[in-house]
Amino acid sequence: MPSANSSKAPSFNGKTSELLKFFKLFEDLATTKCFWVTLTRYESKDFTIFKTSILVQYLGAAKGQRYSICDLKCIIISNANNDISTEIELLQYYRQFCPMAHWLITNGKISM
Question: What is the pTM (predicted TM-score) of this model?
Fold first, then answer.
Protein backbone atom coordinates (compact mmCIF):
# COMPACT_ATOMS: atom_id res chain seq x y z
CA MET A 1 0.00 0.00 0.00
CA PRO A 2 1.41 3.45 -0.84
CA SER A 3 2.51 5.60 2.06
CA ALA A 4 0.04 8.19 3.32
CA ASN A 5 1.90 11.06 1.63
CA SER A 6 2.28 9.31 -1.71
CA SER A 7 0.45 10.73 -4.72
CA LYS A 8 -0.69 7.15 -5.40
CA ALA A 9 -2.31 6.75 -1.97
CA PRO A 10 -6.11 6.62 -2.07
CA SER A 11 -7.62 9.95 -1.21
CA PHE A 12 -11.17 11.18 -0.85
CA ASN A 13 -11.89 14.52 -2.47
CA GLY A 14 -15.06 15.16 -0.45
CA LYS A 15 -17.46 14.52 -3.33
CA THR A 16 -20.19 12.12 -2.28
CA SER A 17 -20.28 10.61 -5.75
CA GLU A 18 -16.60 9.58 -5.39
CA LEU A 19 -16.87 7.86 -1.99
CA LEU A 20 -17.59 4.34 -3.27
CA LYS A 21 -14.76 4.64 -5.78
CA PHE A 22 -12.41 5.65 -2.94
CA PHE A 23 -13.41 2.66 -0.80
CA LYS A 24 -13.03 0.26 -3.74
CA LEU A 25 -9.49 1.48 -4.42
CA PHE A 26 -8.61 1.34 -0.72
CA GLU A 27 -9.98 -2.19 -0.34
CA ASP A 28 -8.15 -3.38 -3.48
CA LEU A 29 -4.84 -2.02 -2.20
CA ALA A 30 -5.36 -3.48 1.28
CA THR A 31 -6.28 -6.90 -0.13
CA THR A 32 -3.25 -6.86 -2.40
CA LYS A 33 -0.95 -5.95 0.48
CA CYS A 34 -2.42 -8.71 2.66
CA PHE A 35 -1.63 -11.21 -0.09
CA TRP A 36 1.86 -9.93 -0.88
CA VAL A 37 3.09 -10.06 2.71
CA THR A 38 2.28 -13.78 2.80
CA LEU A 39 4.76 -14.51 0.00
CA THR A 40 7.87 -16.28 1.23
CA ARG A 41 10.21 -13.73 -0.36
CA TYR A 42 8.61 -10.83 1.56
CA GLU A 43 10.91 -11.41 4.53
CA SER A 44 14.01 -11.20 2.33
CA LYS A 45 13.83 -7.37 2.41
CA ASP A 46 15.35 -7.49 -1.08
CA PHE A 47 13.01 -5.71 -3.48
CA THR A 48 14.25 -7.50 -6.61
CA ILE A 49 13.65 -10.92 -5.07
CA PHE A 50 10.28 -9.83 -3.70
CA LYS A 51 9.21 -8.35 -7.04
CA THR A 52 10.09 -11.61 -8.81
CA SER A 53 7.99 -13.59 -6.32
CA ILE A 54 5.04 -11.27 -6.98
CA LEU A 55 5.34 -11.52 -10.77
CA VAL A 56 5.25 -15.32 -10.55
CA GLN A 57 1.84 -15.04 -8.88
CA TYR A 58 0.28 -13.11 -11.78
CA LEU A 59 0.23 -15.12 -14.99
CA GLY A 60 1.76 -13.15 -17.86
CA ALA A 61 2.71 -10.13 -15.75
CA ALA A 62 6.42 -10.54 -16.37
CA LYS A 63 5.78 -10.19 -20.11
CA GLY A 64 4.17 -6.79 -19.65
CA GLN A 65 0.75 -5.48 -20.62
CA ARG A 66 -1.12 -7.60 -23.14
CA TYR A 67 -4.55 -7.19 -24.65
CA SER A 68 -6.86 -9.43 -26.63
CA ILE A 69 -9.38 -8.67 -29.33
CA CYS A 70 -11.99 -9.68 -26.76
CA ASP A 71 -10.72 -6.92 -24.41
CA LEU A 72 -11.18 -4.38 -27.18
CA LYS A 73 -14.65 -5.70 -28.04
CA CYS A 74 -15.66 -5.44 -24.37
CA ILE A 75 -14.72 -1.75 -24.30
CA ILE A 76 -16.64 -1.13 -27.52
CA ILE A 77 -19.73 -3.07 -26.41
CA SER A 78 -19.81 -1.56 -22.93
CA ASN A 79 -19.81 1.91 -24.47
CA ALA A 80 -22.05 1.20 -27.47
CA ASN A 81 -25.24 2.33 -25.77
CA ASN A 82 -23.67 5.28 -23.95
CA ASP A 83 -24.33 8.68 -25.39
CA ILE A 84 -20.95 10.36 -25.41
CA SER A 85 -22.02 13.93 -25.12
CA THR A 86 -19.11 15.67 -23.42
CA GLU A 87 -15.43 15.96 -24.08
CA ILE A 88 -14.73 14.29 -20.73
CA GLU A 89 -16.79 11.24 -21.70
CA LEU A 90 -15.05 11.06 -25.06
CA LEU A 91 -11.62 11.25 -23.44
CA GLN A 92 -12.56 8.52 -20.93
CA TYR A 93 -13.51 6.23 -23.80
CA TYR A 94 -10.40 7.21 -25.77
CA ARG A 95 -8.11 6.42 -22.79
CA GLN A 96 -9.62 2.92 -22.60
CA PHE A 97 -9.77 2.21 -26.32
CA CYS A 98 -6.53 3.68 -27.63
CA PRO A 99 -3.94 1.70 -25.60
CA MET A 100 -5.67 -1.58 -26.43
CA ALA A 101 -6.05 -0.82 -30.11
CA HIS A 102 -2.46 0.42 -30.36
CA TRP A 103 -1.09 -2.72 -28.64
CA LEU A 104 -3.18 -5.03 -30.85
CA ILE A 105 -2.04 -3.25 -34.04
CA THR A 106 1.63 -3.10 -32.96
CA ASN A 107 1.63 -6.80 -32.11
CA GLY A 108 -0.09 -7.85 -35.34
CA LYS A 109 -3.31 -9.00 -33.70
CA ILE A 110 -5.45 -6.60 -35.75
CA SER A 111 -4.74 -4.35 -38.71
CA MET A 112 -5.96 -0.95 -39.77
Answer: 0.45
